[in-house]
Design a protein that fits this description.
Distance between the termini: 25 Å
Mean pLDDT: 94
Order of helices and strands: HEHEEHEHEH
Protein name: CoA-binding protein
Strand content: 15-25%
Number of strands: 5
Number of domains: 1
CATH class: Alpha Beta
Largest sheet: 5 strands, parallel
Low-confidence stretches: none
Radius of gyration: 13 Å
Organism: Actinomadura rugatobispora
Helix content: 25-40%
CATH superfamily: NAD(P)-binding Rossmann-like Domain
CATH topology: Rossmann fold
Structural class: alpha/beta
Pfam families: CoA_binding_2
Length: 137
Amino acid sequence: MGDEYADQAVIRRLLNESRTWAFVGLRDNPAREVHTQARLLQQRGKRIIPVHPAAETVLGETGYAALADVPEKPDVVGIYRRAEFAGAAVDEAIAAGAKAVWLPLDVVDTAAARRAKEAGLEVVMDRCPAVEWALRR
């Protein structure tokens, strides 16, 4: 994969300038990594939007069953699904008008990342927001 989807300028821009992150796969389960990452970004001033078929309220934010149900365009869509399901979520992010997608560690779908880039989205793949936040200092 190389660094094509780990451009440090893109990572810094998304962490520094984005305001709204939709988290696909976010439920009210603090034991899950997506919950940890959403909480971290929320603590750093980002608005988080939970997206999960259960549509639960998480970290005080209203949840939605699908990205298509979210009433605003998120700056970044974090896709916390297994790699085999990531492509469909990337396509939903494109359709929802997101500006970027972020696929966490071990979630790699190069074809979906290419589709997102071709649609004009910025793409970060196989990277952890918490680790990148610590490294940006």
